[in-house]
Amino acid sequence: MLSLVAFAAGVTLAFRQALFDQTEQRINSIADDIQLVAQRNEPFFALGENIPIELELANPNNLSRWASPTVYIQIDRPDGYPLGKSQNMGGVQFPADKDLTPAQPQAFKHGDSDLGEMIVLDRLISVGGRPVVVVHVGETLGLVNVTIGRVEHVVAVTLGLALIAVVLAAIVLARRAVNPIKELTEAMREIGSEHLDRRVHWERRDDELALLAATFNEMLERLERAFSRERQFIADASHELKTPLTVINAHAQMLRRWADSNEDVRKESLETITSESAYLAKMINGMLTLAKADSAEAIPREPLHLDPILAEVLSAGAARAAEKGLALIGPDEYAGNDVVLGDANLLRQLFSNLVENAIKFTERGTVRMSRGHLDGAIAVTVTDTGIGIEPQAREHVFERFFRADKSRTRQIEGTGLGLAIVASIVRVHEGTITVDEAPGGGSAFRVVLPLLAASAAPEAG
């Protein structure tokens, strides 16, 4: 609106100045004609050759040649004495201008007079280097002011209509822009942890607000999944913690009642409490590891040789495999220069969990760890000859507290967090993990981790 007002004012002023310039050009042209006649110094209108040119110019009949209803002419001597004027001036007389000199022979004056608002040109005319007369040519601005008034009226009406259009357009645009934001704000206020399934349906919009709504919906989907996982985690954790706590409480009650009188009860209860406490501690440690892995920003990572970690994991699992009569086989050879960016403790736990899981679910045969290279990455595969995993259960094995065989939940030792921890650690290290059926039965877990360039490898110690 301010721009429109400024533009209208600029147009009006420019048009006004253009009319004034045209008026000055007209009276300047008349003064040029009079000066040309004076400088020729020739008989004018057959009044005779002996009449001085200033007197001939001052003749009212001659001046009427240039006069008009809006143009007035007066001739003065250089000293300011009036010699003559056009007949349309009547008793009005232009004031003398004694400031004119041959070096500054003319000046425009704009002001009010008895004839109305005028622009007057005062010009000193010299003949042969001698000042002869001063010519006053004036034009009234009545018609100019009428024209300017009409233009100002048209501009004002046009400006008013334009401003109304701007206001209406601004209201429409503001409503179009603000109303969706209000809707989005209301949706945000209504959506809480219990209403994360709600969405903003702006599929038909194709502007930035539609992009904002789509981003908001994506955020809600992520939050809904996160809340769902957390609720499931809390529910599963409560269920898993309830059993050992109940067992511990029951045996504590048995100790209180019969420990002093029955040695067998005391021994059995203490062993059970110790076992269940260890189970609880292991589960809590698993939850802490998951929490650490989920907050990847808090995990300091550094370049590490992977082979020593794999060798350490195999060495630690050898005794457990031997107890079950299983063969634990490692890679045929270690390259010794595979470097990954990671946390040594988390990587050690990652592969330990895979090896322990394979030993746990294998009754006879072999657990094998193999390694290979992909494009810029290393793949470590842990294969067993155990019971395997049903195809429909493979996509869920990395979920917290998931067990493929619910009937064996308490028969097989474990917290149900091992593979969930593995998946979280792999994600932190920007890798991938998959599970497939091993040749001949059993399961094959494959971890792929990105390798660092050789220049980033740590010094061998």
Q: Overview of this structure, please?
A:
With 461 residues, the protein is of the alpha+beta class. It contains ten helices and twelve strands. The strands form three sheets. A five-stranded antiparallel β-sheet has the order 2-1-5-4-3. Strand 4 and strand 5 form a beta hairpin. Helix 6 (263-294) packs parallel to helix 10, helix 7 (306-323) packs parallel to helix 8 (344-360) and helix 8 (344-360) runs antiparallel to helix 10 (418-428). The chain starts with a helix and ends in an 11-residue tail after the last strand. The model is unreliable at 43-48, 406-411 and 454-461 (pLDDT under 50).
Please outline the major beta sheet: 5 strands, antiparallel
Low-confidence stretches: 43-48, 406-411, 454-461
Number of strands: 12
Number of helices: 10
| Shape annotation | rod-shaped
Give the topology string: H per helix, E per strand.
HHHEEEEEHHHEHEEHEEHHEE
Strand order of the largest sheet: 2-1-5-4-3
Mean of the pLDDT scores?
82
In short:
The chain has helices spanning 2-40, 53-58, 60-63, 142-190, 208-258, 263-294, 306-323, 344-360, 391-394, 418-428; strands at 71-76, 82-85, 106-113, 116-127, 130-140, 302-305, 327-329, 339-342, 366-374, 377-384, 432-437, 443-450.
